[in-house]
TrEMBL record:
Location of the protein in the cell: Secreted
One GO term (biological process): developmental process
An MF annotation (GO) of this entry: growth factor activity
GO cellular component, one term: extracellular space
Family label: Belongs to the TGF-beta family.
Signal sequence segment: none
InterPro entries: Cystine-knot_cytokine (IPR029034), TGF-b_C (IPR001839), TGF-beta-rel (IPR015615), TGFb_CS (IPR017948)
Protein's name according to its UniProt entry: TGF-beta family profile domain-containing protein
PROSITE patterns: TGF_BETA_1, TGF_BETA_2
Superkingdom, taxonomy of origin: Eukaryota
Primary localisation category: secreted
Length: 104
């Protein structure tokens, strides 16, 4: 199946983060899934390395794997959390949400 971005939702209570995170209560992180098969099209956001790896895989599949579907662009997540009883902090955590995927 072709590579694509898929939804995964994390809830703070499931991650045992409810004691200090005020907001958000969870977030849509997304993940990349699927195969990067020959031929790699422009919409697959393939690197030049992935294109070469695909060609080598076709010639010798037992020694060289197919390229992997991986994030090509990530963005931040704003988190409001309690530092202690009297301090609340708003912080942007980098690379928390997958925006796009590609073959690498």
């Amino acid at each position: 199946k072709q590579h694509q971005k898929k939804l995964i939702y994390f809830e703070n209570r499931d991650l045992v983060l409810t004691d200090w995170i005020i907001a958000p209560s969870g977030y849509e992180a997304y993940y990349c899934s699927g195969e990067c098969n020959f031929p790699l099209n422009a919409h697959m956001n393939a690197t030049n390395h992935a294109i070469v790896q695909t060609l080598v895989h076709l010639m010798n599949p037992s020694q060289v794997p197919k390229p992997c579907c991986a994030p090509t662009k990530l963005t931040y997540l704003s988190v409001l959390y309690s530092l202690d009883d009297s301090n609340v902090i708003l912080k942007k955590y980098k690379n928390m949400v997958v925006k796009s995927c590609g073959c690498h």
